[in-house]
Design goal:
The complex is a heterodimer of chains A (about 240) and B (about 300). Chain A contains ten helices and 15 strands. Chain A has a three-stranded mixed sheet, sandwiched between helices. The radius of gyration of chain A is 16 Å and the shape is globular. Chain A starts with a strand and ends in a 5-residue tail after the last helix. With about 300 residues, chain B is of the alpha+beta class. In chain B, the strands form two sheets. In chain B, strands 1-2-3-4-5-6-7-10 form an eight-stranded mixed sheet. A two-stranded antiparallel sheet of chain B has the order 8-9. In chain B, α6 packs antiparallel against α9. The chains are: A alpha/beta (about 240), B alpha+beta (about 300). Chains A and B meet through loops of A and loops of B. Chain B: Belongs to the BCP1 family. Chain B: This is Protein BCCIP homolog.
């Protein structure tokens, strides 16, 4: 189910939160209603962790992660790193990486199996992504934009990309990622998809300006209407799909 | 944010020193019009014409005095030519207007989107200022007047009323305000005027002229009697920001710190509104009688034209 909310009058909820299948990070300093909406949806299933990264609240754009791990930039302080390691489940590996492009959330779009990376990312970073997150990494652009993490929201069941993505690009990306993709907008026409919403396999949170049309597109492409928090689909996937073409 | 609205001697160089992302992009648009630097003294040239469909076009060309010229050609001072045009509010302007009104009620979480929708729906009274041929559709300023009684039932207006009443520190004025919001609401217009920091002051007289002209046209032209009456404002309510001196006691003493003014107005025209009497000041909320408006327009014009 998709929920609409705001962070301090700001509809860019993907900037202030990060949602995966194993955990949810939210920024500190927001109003209680912001947390309570997350906690109502997620409390029994996955931990909701309040944190900052490098003293900032834009955690959604600074870190990248999935159920296997979390990558944080070099600006993360030791205390924040320790707090994350303590609060997240043991199965999640938290790794701080030295990378010039420190807004990892803008540079990396990933689900539990595959990741799209900024074309200028270091080779070491690419290997770390593959190791820590347990994914296959592809350097790609989306509608000519190199900030793939910003213009694409990706889960194991579907993806939403920048509205100006061409059909050929959509087909190519869909083949790479092995999920259905749709070009659309969020927050009443905003093209920066990942900043305006955050999503995992069974729930999505969008900015409150998102129109009903946009919300229905989101619910259909991410298959949220009949979704349940379950790991079955994930675990079975490996046995169902032998290899990527 | 540096207080910029001291009345005299404001430089005409549009050097946007701003910190918000929207203003940065506005500065980017403005600098994209930089053509060439010239060594002429200050010349101020302004046309304001009314086109047949009621738009007010304001041509704003300025040549800035250069004291030195770089042979390299690139420097931070230069000529910025910009043609601004005024339009009726359209639904596409949603994001621009919303950004401008982000801090309208300080940090309160309220239904800002609904408020912006109200402004955009009222196409008869209300103006947005944009660059003339801009494909990016960057919005620089919005002015409008919303009748409190007409929109009384909207959630955003109720939240606005609650907030304004709750932050009023002067208890004797709270009651007057409450009356404005309830019994007199049909005759009160909420004057919303926001613009990017450092928008050229030359735009202000035509902008306010456009608004008050539209109000008087609406009184004549609106299709139904009810709508016509809804624009017969007796009072305008203004919610705005000022900088009040920490030791302000309401008068300029002759002590050492008397050079500092007790109140600095972020927007120059607020000072004029403040002096036109009959106000309730709070952070600052002013109620101005509608028949003082022509005086305001004249004073604004002379204020802007007098500036070097």
């Amino acid at each position: 189910m998709a929920t609409r909310l705001q962070f301090e009058n700001n509809c860019e909820v993907g900037v202030f939160s990060k949602l995966t299948n194993a955990y949810c990070l939210v920024a500190i300093g927001g109003s209680e209603s912001f947390y309570s909406i997350f906690e109502t949806e997620l409390a029994d299933v996955i931990p909701v962790v309040k944190t900052s990264i490098g003293g900032t609240r834009i955690i959604g754009r600074l870190c990248a992660g999935n159920k296997n791990g979390l990558l944080v930039p070099h600006t993360t302080t030791d205390q924040e790193l320790q707090h994350l390691r303590n609060s997240l489940p043991d199965s999640v590996v938290v790794q701080r990486i030295e990378e010039r492009l420190s807004a990892l959330g803008n540079c990396i779009a990933c689900n539990d199996h595959v990741a799209l990376a900024h074309t200028d990312l270091d080779r070491e970073t690419e290997e770390l992504i593959a190791d820590v997150l347990g994914v296959e990494v592809f350097r790609q652009t989306i509608a000519g934009n190199i900030l793939v993490g910003s213009y694409c929201a990706l889960t194991n069941r579907g993806g939403l990309v920048h509205p100006h993505t061409s059909i050929e690009d959509l087909d190519e990306l869909s083949t790479l990622l092995q999920v259905p993709l749709v070009a659309g907008t969020v927050n009443r026409g905003s093209e920066v998809i990942a900043a305006g919403m955050t999503v995992n396999d069974w729930t999505a949170f969008c900015g409150s300006d998102t129109t009903a049309t946009e919300l229905s597109v989101i619910e259909s492409v991410f298959k949220l209407r009949e979704a349940q928090p379950s790991a079955i689909v994930d675990k079975m996937r490996k046995s169902l799909i032998d290899s990527y073409v | 944010m540096a207080p910029t609205a001291k009345r005299p001697r404001r430089k005409l160089v549009a050097r946007p020193v701003t910190f918000s992302p929207f203003a940065r992009s506005a500065a980017h648009i403005a600098s994209a019009y930089m053509i060439k630097r010239q060594m002429i003294e200050n010349k101020l040239h302004e046309f304001c014409q009314l086109t047949p469909n009621g738009e007010c076009k304001c041509n704003d060309k300025r040549n800035i005095d250069e004291t030195e010229s770089d042979s390299d050609g690139e420097s931070s001072e230069g000529v910025v030519q910009a043609d601004f045009a005024f339009f009726d509010p359209k639904p596409d302007d949603f994001h621009g207007v919303k950004t401008l009104l982000q801090t309208f009620l300080d940090n309160k979480e309220w239904n800002l989107s609904g408020f912006v929708d109200l402004i955009l729906e009222q196409t008869t009274v209300g103006t947005v200022a944009k660059l003339e041929d801009d494909d990016d559709d960057g919005l620089f300023s919005v002015v409008t007047a919303l009748n409190l009684g007409r929109y009384k039932d909207h959630k955003c207006m109720k939240e606005l009323e609650d907030y304004v009443l709750s932050v009023c520190h002067e208890s004797n004025l709270v009651d007057q305000l409450r009356v404005l919001f309830s019994k007199k609401a049909r005759d009160v217009g909420l004057l919303v005027s926001q613009r990017v920091v450092n928008l050229p002051a030359q735009l202000l007289p035509p902008l306010y002229d456009a608004l008050f002209d539209e109000v008087s046209w609406a009184v004549e032209d609106e299709p139904t009697e009810q709508l016509r009456n809804s624009f017969r404002f007796k009072t305008y309510l203004i919610v705005t920001k000022i900088y009040m001196h920490k030791k302000a006691n309401g008068k300029l003493g002759e002590k050492a710190d008397s050079e500092e003014e007790p109140v600095i107005y972020v927007k120059a025209e607020d000072e004029l509104f403040h002096e036109l009497k009959n106000y309730v000041s709070m952070g600052l909320v002013m109620a101005v009688e509608a028949d003082k408006i022509p005086t305001f327009r004249k004073q604004l014009r002379s204020l802007i034209d007098d500036e070097p």
